[in-house]
Write a structure and sequence with these properties.
- Helix content is 0%, strand content 52%.
- By secondary structure, it is mainly β.
- The protein has a single domain, classed as Porin (Beta Barrel), CATH 2.40.160.
- Strands 1, 2, 3, 4, 5, 6, 7, 8, 9, 10, 11 and 12 form a twelve-stranded antiparallel sheet that branches.
């Protein structure tokens, strides 16, 4: 069962973070940020295979983003994962992500919030045709635009199932259907009332191999509180 990287999910397995912009891979309309850029994976270095580290300019076009998500154009992102469990059926990891303004010296935004987001993710293979992913994460607003400090931002969680769309068909056994549910609990503008939000996330992913995949999904807001309208996303990832 392939380990699929789903939109807005903190993975339970070690995975390259979505949207880290390297200097030699500029996109039209995205300013070049020539600061330190490092991506390290267990397959490409001699370090421990239970640790992964990545750092680079944040490219918001690879993931399905919602209003208020930390980072974006002009920000740097540092992503670290530590594997707690790595067995043939079950993976569990702790993620630690930080986004910060790039600064005008690196062609980034001169000022903005710095957000730290720890997460816990789990991937479990239920059988040969069904896999389960879940995660919980929390955003900590370390500094705001005025240099102040806030202790907490919001809590996010998710649960998803994945399965081959047509098993046994040549070429189509790499096409997966995924159905996810996302929950978010945030404070209102006054900081007193908690507002729960729920979204459904159906999608398709064509997992050609470990270095090439196409992913699409539709984010459907549910429940009485809707912080943003529905969205859809199509992403192609090809790693050499």
């Amino acid at each position: 069962m392939p380990h699929l990287r789903l939109f807005r999910f903190a993975p339970g397995f070690l995975s390259d973070p979505l949207g880290l912009q390297q200097d030699e891979c500029e996109l039209p309309g995205v300013p070049r940020m020539p600061g330190p850029d490092l991506t390290s994976t267990p397959e490409s270095n001699d370090g421990p295979d239970w640790l992964q580290f990545g750092m680079g300019a944040d490219n918001p076009f690879f993931d399905l983003r919602r209003p208020g998500d930390p980072g974006g154009i002009g920000y740097y992102r540092v992503n670290t994962q530590v594997a707690l469990i790595d067995s043939p059926k079950t993976c569990c990891s702790i993620g630690m992500q930080t986004v910060m303004p790039g600064g005008i010296q690196f062609a980034g935004v001169p000022n903005g919030p710095t957000v730290f987001s720890p997460s816990l993710g789990v991937f479990h293979t239920l059988n040969d045709r069904l896999g389960l992913q879940s995660f919980v994460s929390k955003n900590f607003l370390l500094t705001n635009t005025n240099g102040g400090s806030v202790l907490q931002k919001n809590v996010q969680c998710g649960l998803a199932l994945q399965r081959p769309l047509l098993a046994g068909q040549d070429g189509l056994n790499h096409l997966f259907f995924c159905m996810g549910a996302l929950g978010n609990v945030s404070q209102d503008r006054d900081g007193f009332k908690l507002q729960p939000n729920c979204d459904l996330l159906p999608g398709l992913q064509w997992h050609v191999n470990e270095n090439w995949w196409l992913s699409s999904a539709v984010l459907v807001p549910m429940g009485p509180v809707r912080s943003a309208p529905g969205q859809w996303q199509l992403t192609c990832s090809l790693r050499f």
